[in-house]
Amino acid sequence: GQQLNQSPQSMFIQEGEDVSMNCTSSSIFNTWLWYKQDPGEGPVLLIALYKAGELTSNGRLTAQFGITRKDSFLNISASIPSDVGIYFCAGTSRDDKIIFGKGTRLHILP
Amino acid sequence: DADVTQTPRNRITKTGKRIMLECSQTKGHDRMYWYRQDPGLGLRLIYYSFDVKDINKGEISDGYSVSRQAQAKFSLSLESAIPNQTALYFCATSDSKISGSLTGELFFGEGSRLTVL
């Protein structure tokens, strides 16, 4: 079946550093989305991408929809303590299923 | 009040018991979903419903059933719970009227943690 390969699985960074994570797939996706999950809560949408090549920013977050429609990345600039959590990529496939990656757990060292 | 409400938030049960997790939403969305989250495995789709009379299997539907009693309510049942169904379960909604297609913009509840002993 269709799968999203999300990396890295976890990250340990210093406060103030930039963060980069990505998702790849062997299948084409119609949309790419990035969600964040805080402890004890459900995921919340951060950025949605609808067109191949699209680059979108939301504050310190920037995400891109790969030109091949098989990948996407998320960058976080100047990380702060509240950025801690699990980040998920998700894509909608041609058969209208929403598939999630396995998540990237972000840790910020004091 | 939360727009997507799940009950119960926590449940401990024994192998073989029947369990129902309920989800209700006040967002007026037509589409509802049940996902399961396990450490290191991300979110996996169990069932989804595009409307009251529409039910579709997801990636891991075996051992589960659902009922869409009304547009605002979508329940997940485990007919005979087993230990490997111990997980965090999420209900989510989306609105097809925004884009007319499945865009992936989901709104999640706070989760129901189920432990099967």
Secondary structure layout plus pairing:
The complex is a heterodimer of chains A (about 110) and B (about 120).
Chain A: E1 5-7, E2 10-14, E3 19-24, E4 31-37, E5 44-49, E6 55-58, E7 61-65, E8 71-76, E9 85-92, E10 98-100, E11 104-109
Parallel strand pairs in A: 2-11
Antiparallel strand pairs in A: 1-3, 3-8, 4-5, 4-9, 6-7, 7-8, 9-10, 9-11
Chain B: E1 4-7, E2 10-13, E3 19-25, E4 31-38, E5 42-51, E6 54-57, E7 65-70, E8 73-78, E9 87-94, H1 96-99, E10 107-108, E11 112-116
Mind explaining what this structure looks like?
Chain A is an all-beta fold. Chain A has strands at 5-7, 10-14, 19-24, 31-37, 44-49, 55-58, 61-65, 71-76, 85-92, 98-100, 104-109. In chain A, the strands form two sheets. In chain A, strands 2, 4, 5, 9, 10 and 11 form a six-stranded mixed β-sheet that branches. Chain A has a five-stranded antiparallel β-sheet with strand order 1-3-8-7-6, with no helix packed on it. In chain A, a hairpin with a 5-residue loop joins β9 and β10. The mean pLDDT of chain A is 92. Chain B has one helix and eleven strands, in the order βββββββββαββ. With 117 residues, chain B is mainly beta. Chain B is globular and about 40 Å long. In chain B, strands 2, 4, 5, 6, 9, 10 and 11 form a seven-stranded mixed β-sheet that branches. In chain B, strands 1-3-8-7 form a four-stranded antiparallel β-sheet, with no helix packed on it. At the A-B interface, β4, β5, β9 and β10 of A face β5 and β10 of B.
Give a brief description.
The complex is a heterodimer of chains A (110) and B (117). Chain A has no helices and 11 strands.
Distance between the termini of chain A: 40 Å
What share of residues of chain B is helical?
Answer: under 10%
Strand content of chain B: over 45%
**So what's the oligomer here?**
heterodimer
Taken from the alpha-carbon principal axes, the silhouette of chain B is globular
**Largest sheet data of chain B:** 7 strands, mixed
The SSE order of chain A reads EEEEEEEEEEE
Q: Which consecutive residue ranges of chain A, at least 5 long each, have pLDDT under 50?
A: none
The averaged pLDDT of chain B comes out at: 91
Number of helices of chain B: 1
Count the beta strands of chain A. Answer: 11
Output the helix-strand order of chain B: EEEEEEEEEHEE
Report the major sheet of chain A: 6 strands, mixed
